[in-house]
Amino acid sequence: MAVIIDGKKISQQIKDELKEKVQKLRAEGKHGALAVIQVGTDPASGVYVRNKKNACAYIGIDSLAYELPEETGEEELLGLIEELNQKEEVKGILVQLPLPEHICEDRVIQAISPEKDVDGFHPWNTGKLTIGEPGFVSCTPAGIIQLLKRSGVETEGKNCVVIGRSNIVGKPMALLMLRENATVTIAHSRTRNLPEICRQADILIVAVGKPQLIGAEYVKKGAVVIDVGIHRDENNRLCGDVKFDEVEPLASAITPVPGGVGPMTIAMLMNNCVQSIETGQEG
Ligand code: NAD
């Protein structure tokens, strides 16, 4: 029987620690707001934005919401970002993705001041991660590092396979595991012999974005399995990229979906905001 890594509990611990820190910072006169920009009315984005505002309220930081209509032009959005870049009290700027097709996401990400880029998507921050310097780190992979650390999973010298090479999850995840002294393999859609490669993993991190792709044949006995995926199955129930029922008996520890990686993302976003308030820049 695997240990079920409880992301809900761990994310709550982190938010409680941050709440305390925010009180101390306020007493020192340090405070600031997170600006959240949403363009259009995508229902999933609406839920994410609401959760982010609630998390800000919980830990005691201000949030400013900008809900722009779907037809907002790129120049208008870039203008708003520039305005927020200049505002002293705004310590974090987040643009909810995906954006409508007529807006270039890369241009928008690069318009955010790297010092307020609490999502950690700006090339300045991804570059810092690459060379091992402090900066804002993408929240989902940063949350996975916390899950591993706070569950007592050793990483040094361990074989880690990350499936997925996206800029938001796979690549930063691999770099963070490297920082934790794991021996890292990045697998992706063109990888050959994926099950065989995955069976080498002491720690298998799955971010393929394909519902329940990863079954028992991909997992070594005793491996730690982290499931980043989040989908709805044919019965409209949440599921991950991993066949939980099949993999759990083999694993030594595993994250469930929901209640694993998901709640960590917002906790780490809050962590980045607090870091920005604390230092006035990326930590
Ligand atoms: P993505 O689609 O950008 O990237 C998926 C990656 O998987 C690609 O690099 C691709 O090469 C690889 N891939 C696709 N099919 C493959 C296959 N058959 N074999 C091997 N590799 C394959 O997705 P993403 O943004 O990295 O997100 C991955 C998953 O994580 C999605 O399900 C997404 O919804 C979820 N996600 C969850 C959170 C969270 O907070 N829990 C945050 C971000 C993403």
Question: Nutshell version of this structure?
Answer:
The chain is α/β, with parallel strands linked by helices and 283 residues long.
Strand order of the largest sheet: 1-11-8-7-5-6
* Annotated CATH architecture of the largest domain: 3-Layer(aba) Sandwich
Strand content: 15-25%
As a percent range, the share of helical residues equals 40-55%
Please describe what this structure looks like.
With 283 residues, the protein is α/β, with parallel strands linked by helices. It has two domains: 30-113, Rossmann fold (3-Layer(aba) Sandwich); 139-262, Rossmann fold, CATH 3.40.50. Helices cover 41% and strands 16% of the residues. The protein has helices spanning 7-27, 43-59, 74-86, 105-111, 123-130, 139-150, 170-179, 194-198, 244-247, 262-279, and strands at 3-4, 33-39, 62-68, 90-95, 159-163, 183-187, 203-206, 224-227, 231-232, 238-239, 253-254. It is globular, with a radius of gyration of 19 Å. The structure holds nicotinamide-adenine-dinucleotide. Residues 140, 163-166, 168-170, 187-189, 191, 194, 207-210, 228-230, 261-262, 265 line the site of nicotinamide-adenine-dinucleotide (NAD).
